Amino acid sequence: MTDITVYNLIYTKADLDAAPADERLFFLMASSVANDTQMLNKLLALTLERFDATHRFINQGNSAQGFMILRMLTGRLNEAWKMLASSNRMIKVNYLADLSDDAQASFRSILAYFGSKRSLILDVRNGVAFHHLREHVEAAYQSLDPATDLGDYLNQSIGNTLYYTTEILQYETLKNLAGLDSQEVAITLLIQDIREQTTNFNTFLFSFALVFAQRYLPKALEQLKNHHENFEAPNFEDLRLPFFFHLPNTR
Q: How is the chain split into domains, by residue range?
């Protein structure tokens, strides 16, 4: 356990009412996406943090769980991009010049990545994350070598049952969407893109939120140093979130 300090920015609805509606709405919606991407990235890190040299089942279960989290992240990052794109003019006119250099660069990087003809995050979001497209599943199945080892992991508890063949098809679909010859390389590329765009979005939002608070929540900022708590938090290396674990009240 390690001590951390968390500061509480305290304000009221009346304080937020002072902000223009479009700026207030963007602040609220973008901060929601920021929360989601941070939570999902933490869960991903805990899932993939350890490799078990003894049990292939454990690694494949964790890999499947990690890829599910990656698919959720593609959806939230798509929402982040859509919010930035729809508020592009407001940001450029009212905020961009006052943001940090890193935040300005991150803003432009997000628009460039998602505004290109193809982006792996959007391809995964549209083709794997939230839809089961028959053509993708069939293409993935047909592209497998006939000698590919398939199979599922069964347990008396449904919570520890993993239909792994369909996960292999998910990886194969990702490989096909990325236009690569290796599932592992495609997964590595997706993780890299997601981490980069998550960092870009949160770098931008942190600076935006600071400027927003300076303009519309100055009293809350002034009192920030007086509202904090110190408490013990678990260390990352002491935590894990595996797919397989004993579930209570199961037989």
A: 2-50+58-144+154-238
